[in-house]
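Q: How would the structure tokens look for this protein?
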Amino acid sequence: PDTKDGGPDGYHPARPIRGFSQNHVSGTGGGGKYGHILISPQIGLAIDKEGHDSEKAGEIAMAHYYSVRLTRYDIRVELTPTEHAAIYRLTFPQSEEAHILFDLGHNIPGDIAGSWTGGYLEAGEVKIDSENNRITGWGQYYGGWQAEAYRVYFVAEISKASSAHGVWKDGKIQAGEKTVAVAAPKERIGAYFQYSTREEEVVHLKIAVSFRSIEQAEKHLREEIPGWDFATVAAAARAKWNEYLSTILIDDPTATREQLTIFYTALYHTAIMPRDRTGDCPWEDYAGPYWDDHYAIWDTFRTLFPLYALVKPSIVRDNINSFITRFHRNGKVMDAFIAGRDGGSPQGGDAVDTVIADAYLKGITGVDWYEAYAILKDAAENKRLPAYREHDRGWIPDDLVEGWPPASVSKTLEFAYNDFTTALVARGLGFMEDYERYLRRSRQWENLWSSRTKSNQPGSRSFSGFIRPRRSNMAWVSYDPDKWYTWDGPFFYEGSAWTYSYYVPHDVHRLIQLMGGPEKFVARTKYAFENNLIDLGNEPSFLVARLFNYALRPDLTSYYVRKSMAHWTLDGYPGNEDSGAMSSWYIFSALGFFPVAGQDLYLINGPLFKKCTIQLENGKKLVVEGINASEENIYVAALTINGEEYDKNWLRHSEIKDGGRLVFQMAAEPTDWGKTVPVPASFPAPSIR
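A: Here is the predicted structure in token form.
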């Protein structure tokens, strides 16, 4: 449901329910989005925006089913979804004034969450077919995250004939009328049906939405909910969710209910965004793969897409093919793609590049990689900021930074990694000139390393060297390395120099040298964690705890990963869940290995559970056993892969993509496991595929 003060997804658990809109985002930051075609069952008729809010009781929320009692009206609302539709079961009290209200003006960025862009209905129309208990319509909406206007179409049917009906516009009821349209932007329109109901009489309502047309919405409704059997639809939804959640099965009699709830809630969140709208995209001449609602691939490239690459590679394949189509049609593939609209300034680098490179290096099939490389090449030559590309400088002077956010340092680091991953794909496809050039440019981040800069934190003065903003004349910019910068910078996007000084996934061994060698690196990183200088609740820090592996201290990786897992799940997520990003961070942490997105590399930390079975899409199974695994036994004492002893604290995707068995021996104290074979250096670049 939608509630007052609901945030970007429209819902606040402690606020009254305004109604039930048909589309939402999940776990995002930024401005709100969607929240269209609000349905409000009522006793009496209240059409004002806030005039029909109701307190609630008896709320039940599951992946496939939702139920609540609207106490203001004593109406029980139940609903269950399909891919593009939903069926509602409304249980009314005895009344001559039972109503079902449709509000097309309602939207989350304008009415619920608030957004710097606002949110409103630009155009639209509603038509009532009272003989068939049916209503159709469409709205063109502006606002929210990626504000450009887009259309949503709907078809709804109701199981009971109404005693009266009408439409309304801007607070004025037009009883008996069957059509209403928007004449000017920001008008609010809607419709209503009135019923005489017995005590506990059930009325069903089913509705389908489409981003393409009313005809497509009708097709969805006809195919997905042909009748009025609520229980059958709910059972099908339950089965579909159970199939997805069974992708990873935990077999651990010592696992607590809380641990299982956290894990499977996380897995549930990985299936919500981005969305597969194949067959329902706005392009009526296109029927190929179409994935939408990338709120920000900057959030999801690090963990969500690598999780898909392991368990559901077809999702990655289809997303990349969707990228290719967007590139041909729009001439660009932006990090944000919402409601069919490419746009927005990237929060950091060109995160789409990392998704493509990650998939290529992991051998995902079904993609024309030369077509995909055209996207990488375009980004490297045209999307990176001019100051970065000019003369292949490879870093962004702070006095030349352009656009939003004005984060010259964090953008430099992310562009450098984009160049590195692009270079690997170029090498694999035989574009050796590109390979050499982008590889060379990817090391220029070091121009922003200030070896003399120190933190002002007590006890940190023995550590020197931080990433730092610099001007085009090579003069250092004065800044506070301890300060956490917000989404509008300057210098860093949602982070500090402490966090971003660790973000060189392609050059970690060089970073360790710059920080004074392995011992100094370990001491400094421990200090950073113990003094809360690394923001583990945001994506740029995802890899930091794993970097101990590069210094041959996987025991510290295990310690800080497990500590982070416990700390950040005590009371929900640490901030925004970010479209499955935080959830997939947790899943990999619990499985015991973590991806370095954009490479075919995983860093090992050891499993949380005694046994997890991952059902791979190719029909194979990857079994991860944690002998003696528990909340206390967090350190890896030994590991075998398919029966062979394995002493590396890292592994390649090729070692697990076709299934197998990883058996960990876990211990309560640090061991010598994983302290002899270094993580491979990225320079010279590793062999490809």
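The longest strand covers residues 119-129.

Residues 2-244 form a domain with the Beta-galactosidase; Chain A, domain 5 fold (CATH 2.70.98.10).

Upvote if useful.
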